[in-house]
Amino acid sequence: MPVGYMVTTTIFAWCTFFAVVAPRRPRPLGTLSFWCGLGLNEVPFVGIYVLVASTALAAAEGDLDSPAAKVTAAVAAVTVVGLAVSAWRGLRTDQVVGRALEQGLGADWRARVHAPLRRHRPWARIMLLPALMRRRDVRRIPDIAYGDAGRRNLLDVYRRRDAPRNAPVLIYFHGGGFTGGAKNREARPLLHRLAGQGWVCISANYRLRPETTFPGHQIDAKKVIAWVREHAPEYGADPSRLFVAGSSAGSNLAAMCALTPNHPEFQPGFESADTSVTAAICLYGYYGHFFGEEPGETASPNQPYAYLDPGAPPFLIAHGTKDALATVEGARNFVDQLRRVSDRAVVYAELPGGQHSFDLFHSPRFEAVVDGVEAFAAWVLAAPERAPDSTR
Length: 392
What we know:
The chain is α/β, with parallel strands linked by helices and 392 residues long. 42% of the residues lie in helices and 14% in strands. It has 11 helices and 8 strands. It has helices spanning 3-20, 27-42, 44-60, 67-91, 93-105, 123-128, 188-196, 216-231, 249-259, 328-341, 364-382, and strands at residues 138-145, 154-160, 167-173, 200-204, 237-247, 279-283, 315-320, 346-351. An 8-stranded mixed beta sheet has the order 1-2-4-3-5-6-7-8, with helices on both faces. Strand 7, helix 10 (328-341) and strand 8 (346-351) form a beta-alpha-beta unit. Helix 1 (3-20) packs parallel to helix 4. The longest helix has 25 residues, at 67-91. The radius of gyration is 22 Å and the shape is globular.
């Protein structure tokens, strides 16, 4: 029996367990779930291809006759079933996102949207090249300084090569627990998709610990908004239609930006800059803890809970049920408190089987979220006067 076949099957079985079962507690086991299961949870087809091919090769070479080989083949078969379960969960995301849009925007939301929306996901890329991010029609302009903190105050601009005019803007903040991460790692399928549709997308670094702590991260996020207000027209963008988005820690930044427009404590030296946003998009975020009876009663000033307000802009929030690093219960609680207070639409999509960092690949799950973001943004842009949520 070839050792390579046994090793390959063992590794994929191990990772598939953490992708499908994904235990979240205790915390060390949850962290193991994240690191071992993330890849196969998002692109299970790759694992199926490898296991089927390796088993077929072993059978063709006559290496499946020993008892150990038969056990390995059985493990491979069970692993393929597990990967199929993971794929099924990802494929269900489009239905979940569709229901979330109906609940948050109203059953007739499609009638209010006149912009063309994608009807079919890019299945060839999902199935064959999930890690390929580049698009021929999109140009990335890297490493533009928006502040004086070196590489931590750099941003990238994504826009269509034909230089759109008066395009809406998406500002994106990466994750990393305020200790790591980079602007060119996460949510790239979203950035490229919107840029290809005529948006101007900004992905920004910001200062991390220990270089700074709160409110330093938030000040940098506000600086990005101020930079966009001043410079976006140079890139063909309309800064009056400005969306803010983020993943994990970046989701916390995005929510804080949306809830603290023009707050001077987060704009030292540029207090007069307009830092209001049109809407917020939060992916697998950490929002802190809320224990009070009234919004903001016990919230820390570095948590969105402290700034909940009836005038908050529309929100789209997406979170995975298997998230081991930022709990889905925390996302549910934030959505519940936001809906209690805000007069605007709050769309919440709870993704079956979704783990932290589900936005790294062109996966069925994230491409469905991308479609949901595009639909949400089109609704907000088409009918800003209808942003107050009549379904609450």
